[in-house]
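Incident log, support desk, overnight shift.

02:14 A customer reports that sequence design results differ from what the structure should imply. Their input is reproduced verbatim below. On-call engineer (initials T.W.) acknowledged and began investigating.
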């Protein structure tokens, strides 16, 4: 048990520190811009797209994606070796590692805990845990794209797909997991965090003031989060 707790602590710290690396901030700094003062004020992919362009958005997304994907994959493989190929405990530890990365992204200590919304990071976790079930995350990606294209709201796509991708995966593929109860609880924390971080988007959607992905760029850039 002590070995399990020790591994979990190590991966919580590693996941959080890696998650705290803000690629949106780094890309903005390279362009001479503090992305927090532009557009929606968010440090994620959508605001990078609106304020810095497609290349910056792609770099931001990939950075945020892989800062979760890589540690989750490593955590699972290391745990499999440490705990004699116990896939159940390895899955639990990888899920905790991913959640730590999301928390690091959403609440990074080095920018006063004011981070992003964690969707790209959650996507990285989803693909990592579903690496042996590619049809799952491919369908999730297609569904996300379809929803965004139809509604033109990234927030709607995010709340409909990535926010729910991990608990749905658990309910489909991990029902026989020895640690199902903690695994389910942790998986739903991803969903709760996504909705908390999108609370302002939800309010704007209700009020009809949410910015569309291909909306008025000039108008979008004038809306800065205080």
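02:41 Re-run completed on a clean worker. Output:
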């Amino acid at each position: 048990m002590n070995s399990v707790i020790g591994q979990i602590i190590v991966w919580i710290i590693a996941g959080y520190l890696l998650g705290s690396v803000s690629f949106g901030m780094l890309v903005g700094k390279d362009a001479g811009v503090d992305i927090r003062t532009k557009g929606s004020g968010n440090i994620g992919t959508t605001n990078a797209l609106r304020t810095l362009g497609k290349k910056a958005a792609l770099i931001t997304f990939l950075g945020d994606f892989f800062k979760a994907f890589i540690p989750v994959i490593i955590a699972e493989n290391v745990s499999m070796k440490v705990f004699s190929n116990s896939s159940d405990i390895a899955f639990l530890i990888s899920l905790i590692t991913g959640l730590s990365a999301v928390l690091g992204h959403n609440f990074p200590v080095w920018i006063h805990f004011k981070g992003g919304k964690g969707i790209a990071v959650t996507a990285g976790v989803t693909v990592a845990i579903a690496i042996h079930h590619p049809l799952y995350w491919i369908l999730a990606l297609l569904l996300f794209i379809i929803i965004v294209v139809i509604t033109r709201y990234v927030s709607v796509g995010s709340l409909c797909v990535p926010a729910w991708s991990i608990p749905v995966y658990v309910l489909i593929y991990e029902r026989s997991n020895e640690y199902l109860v903690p695994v389910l609880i942790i998986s739903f924390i991803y969903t709760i965090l996504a909705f908390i971080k999108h609370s302002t988007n939800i309010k704007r959607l209700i009020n009809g003031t949410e910015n569309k992905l291909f909306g008025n760029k000039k108008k979008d850039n004038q809306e800065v989060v205080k």
